[in-house]
Amino acid sequence: MSDFIDIAPEVAEALAVGKPVVALESTIISHGMPYPQNLETAQAVEQDVRDNGAIPATIAVIGGRCKIGLSPSELEYFAKSTDILKLSRRDIPYCIAKKRDGATTVSATMILAEKAGIKVFATGGIGGVHRELAASFDISADLTELGKTSVAVVCAGAKAILDIPMTLEHLETLGVPVIAYGTDEFPAFYTVKSGQKAPIRLDSPIEIAEFLKSKWDFGLEGGAVIGNPPPADKALELDAIEHAIDSALIEAKGLNIHGREVTPFLLERVTQHTKGKSLEANIALVRNNAVLGAKIAVALAG
Ligand code: PSU
Ligand code: MN
Fold first, then answer.
1. DSSP class of residue 42?
2. Is 140 annotated as a binding residue?
3. Chain centroid offset of residue 279 CA
4. How far apart are CA 16 and CA 35, in angstroms?
5. Contact in structure between 136 and 130 (CB atoms under 8 Å)
6. Do 191 and 235 touch, CB atoms closer than 8 A?
7. Cα(277)–Cα(266) distance, rounded to whole angstroms?
8. 277 catalytic per annotation
9. CA of residue 31 to ligand 1 center, whole Å
């Protein structure tokens, strides 16, 4: 493992003695938010994990080395650099072989977290089935990864830029449990409600930890989606975001944006259309997820 992976000393120590660790992704830093909000958010999220009793491990690839836990200067370098690949499962070997820098999406972060022995990962939103699936055949590699890699992903659901009902259907096909935390509906990232009932509702970090232990101790491999609604005071209303999303989707089509470019493009345009309100919501919900992730990791370790 050490041929490819460097675990930060603090993270390695915590893992060795069974202390709670929460994995954090880096695509949100490099491709999900502009500088300097990306750096401020990444730092705040790490602190949120610490404040709730766990050790943060931001995951990325630097110079072809897989990093589990970044130093403050690595985090800053990552937030500022504009030459960073976006990595899903298939992109990892290229990044390693070419000794490049790569930001890990949900799928790649899950893979590296599992290899390091980290069970809980907090992020903003997972990728999913894109709208107008028949035309694009765009289904995020995040979903396939959730089907086979045993890491719990705490998120605010799937962004409304996606087709949420189809995303939930595909997660069922892949055998991925979907849990809503403290609510009946699966959240839609910027909004508390998606109009879709979540298959399972659990109301405390301990219940979630018991659920995860049951799954994995029984030998059912694969991840789980923990949908944590965005904080009510920063969440947006569906009408407000729907228009921004529709315009962004039309623009993406006109510019023939496809593949891995789609999600970063839509996020940036939605931020412009909402005059920064969506970015504010995004920051608040990632922090909120880090807090829940830490509490689940603490419950799992206890
Ligand atoms: N959600 C966010 N910001 C992001 C992403 C999700 O709020 O930057 C990233 C995650 O890394 C996720 C990826 O894994 O987008 C999905 O990309 P795609 O749709 O290309 O699979
Ligand atoms: Mn895609």
1. H
2. yes
3. 15
4. 35
5. yes
6. yes
7. 14
8. no
9. 8
Residue 92's DSSP bridge partners are none
Q: Rounded to the nearest whole angstrom, what is the distance from the C-alpha of residue 109 to the centroid of ligand 1?
A: 11
At position 52, the amino acid (one-letter code) is: N
Summary mean pLDDT of the chain: 96
How crowded is the C-beta side of 247, counted as CA atoms within 13 Å? 13
Asked whether the predicted pLDDT for residue 12 surpasses 70, the reply is yes
159 is catalytic: yes
**CB-based contacts of 172, cutoff 8 Å, min separation 6:** 178, 199
What separation in Å is there between the alpha carbon of 88 and the centre of ligand 2? 10
Residue among 105, 139, 265, 279 to mutate when testing ligand 1 (max atoms within 8 A of CB): 105
d(CA 61, CA 78): 10
CA distance 266 to 58: 24
51 marked as binding residue: no
**Residue 1: per-residue pLDDT:** 58
Residues with CB under 6 A from ligand 1: 25, 27-28, 31-32, 88, 105-106, 124-125, 127, 140-142, 260, 263, 267, 282
pLDDT in tens, 248-293: 999 999 999 989 999 999 999 999 999 999 999 999 999 999 999 9
What is the pLDDT at residue 159?
86
CA distances from 95 to 141, 149, 264, 276 (A): 17, 21, 19, 32
Helix (H, G, I), strand (E, B) or coil at 123: coil
Residues 78-128: tens digit of each pLDDT: 999 999 999 999 999 999 999 999 999 999 999 999 999 999 999 999 999
Distance (Å, rounded) from C-alpha 156 to C-alpha 214? Answer: 23
